[in-house]
Amino acid sequence: MSTAPKTVQSKESSLSEKGLKAGSVGLIGAVVIGVSCIAPAYTLTAALGPTVSEVGVHLPAIFLVGFIPMLLVALGYRELNNAMPDAGTSFTWATRAFGPWIGWMGGWGLIAATIIVLSNLAAVAVDFFYLMLGQLFSNPELAGLSKILPLNIATTLVFIALACWISYRGMETTKGVQYVLVAFQLLVLGWFAVSAFAHVANGTAFDATAISPDWFNPFAVDSFSQFAAGVSLSIFIYWGWDVTLTMNEETKNPEKTPGRAATITVLVIVIIYMTVALATLSFAGVGDTGLGAGNPENQSSIFAVLAGPVMGPFAILMSLAILSSSAASLQSTFVSPARTMLAMGHYRAISPRFGRISPTYKSPSFATIAAAVAAAAFYVITRTVSENALWDTITALGMMICFYYGITALACVWFFRALAFSSVRAFFFKFLAPLVGGVILLVMFVKTAMDSMDPEYGSGSSVAGVGLVFILGMGVILLGVVVMLVMYRLRPEFFKGKVLTRA
Asked: What is the mean pLDDT of the chain?
């Protein structure tokens, strides 16, 4: 199929159709896919422990602080989408505001972050798949099968392939799968929270801890480094809501629905996180022994440790919930990189092959498969070389998320600069909210980069005395610069502003 941009008559005439199936997702469907991409069950089990280790009982405060820039940035995204609904989101909007070079790097940040997360989601799904088998058949040896490297890699590749196949079939198939998986994980998380509070009320909790107003005070955190580390982790747990924007060419009412879905998604997620966080702290406390949330041995998966004591014989439901959460997010996360690469191919910022659309399913065919291949290759390489490298790259995600979210938020400020003071609404939504959100995220990017140079950051691994997290995070960004320079030689028309012009 032809991949040359077909210009449409719109208020932003340099944007063009890409052949995606319009009107296939409504507001509720977009919110469900947004919640699915964030994967609350998977994210909480992985992030609660490390965040508690940094900030202790002030976990709720840090979750709220991390929520603020996410909401402010989401408001900026909404304004950009209202003006320019385009599947390229960060790539397209930053290009329109700042030009092709910054726009290309914004797209690279999104693609790199999501490709890394795809591999991690598949790995978590595999771990909980075998854990579920061990619980189901009362055979702990089955849970240990995920430690066998060849079997682990083979199963992970199967999960990636299945998620790719569902995503390839388009948004309607994606939406149908997500309704079931998201509803189940939210039901189990609610069950866990209610059960934990019931144990506290009955005096059967491990370390019953009364909720205190001090828990919600971010200024009570001991140091700014701990505060920054906690916020960086909390930003990661909210990440993924922008998938609702990358579907904008496939939603009903594309100028309004994606932005509303993004805002609703962030609000729903903060309610879920606060409820489960309070339940966990109240039941387990923040101690570093036993079932305590601060115990280093519990940090890789807090729910795997607490599900049994909290939910009793129904603990297997938590394993199923985390499996469904990671599997659902694995599938829905394909939406963002595939559509960003589709837009970059469509506007000739990379090979036009990425701009191909499946004639049957009206989905990004080549880009979806490319995302799956890249995620599979990344997992095989990092998992084979070093498990520390895999998990440190996940830790470095905070830098990439702050990087491309910050660029996009400031793109909103610059794009609407002539309208910023035209009304109170324009001042807040087009200028102040994205400016504050973008600056916070870019400050967090710099602070996290500086802190991650310490070898003790992350797994404790280092190269020549420099922390592995810093090397991996900055290495991915610098790799993007190298690839961009190669694309400049191969695709000069985009970088000269001949395809996608600045507004």
From this structure: 88
Could you identify the residue written with the tokens 């701009």? 355
pTM over 0.85: yes
Q: What is the 3-state secondary structure (H, E, C) of 413-451?
A: HHHCCCCCCCCHHHHHHHHHHHHHHHHHHHHHHHHHHHH
The 10 Å CB-count burial string (b at 16+, else e) for 233-270 is: bbbbbbbbbbbbbbbbbbbeebbbbbbbbbbbbbebbb
CA distance 180 to 173: 12
Amino acid (1-letter code) at residue 176: G
pLDDT in tens, 151-178: 999 999 999 999 999 889 987 777 778 8
Q: Are 458 and 469 in contact (CB under 8 A)?
A: yes
The span from the CA of 333 to the CA of 117, in Å, is 8
End-to-end CA distance of the chain: 29
The count of C-alpha atoms lying within 13 angstroms of the C-alpha of 477, restricted to the half-sphere facing its C-beta, is: 18
Per residue in 368-412, pLDDT tens? 999 999 999 999 988 888 767 766 777 788 788 889 999 999 999
CA neighbours closer than 13 Å in the CB half-sphere of residue 422: 8
What would you report as the CA-atom Rg of the chain, rounded to the nearest whole angstrom?
A: 22
- The token duo for 346 is 């469509």
Q: Is the pLDDT of residue 13 over 70?
A: no
Contact, 378 vs 23, CB < 8 A? no
For residue 9, what pLDDT is reported? 34
Q: Which structure tokens are listed for 18?
A: 């890409």
